[in-house]
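Many introductory courses stop at the sequence. We go one step further.
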Amino acid sequence: MTKARLLAVVAALFLVAAACGNSGAPTSYTDNPADYRGEPNVGQAERNFRDGCEEAGLDDLDQQVQQNLADVCECGFDSIRATLNFEEFKQLDDDLRSNINADLTEEVNAIMRRCILEESEFG
């Protein structure tokens, strides 16, 4: 997978995945916890991110990445949560909602690129 293609996929993943949901939108990473795939108390932002990331990835990613997509998306969310406070995460989401062509930060691109490479054993 070329670097340009990988960055395009990362942007597409984040665009779909960043959405925090419209009904009862969370105000923190841990808002509206629920069981999720056998994990207790997973916040709504994480559930939405991982679901959106996986849905977007099934349409456009290399087969090897698709096989590890759940891990890629979980890695992405965990790394973003460790790097950005919720307001920064929400601002990225708001920017993408208002401008579908908005640029992601290099930091977020790097996070998703690293997760794709590590979790899909490209790196």
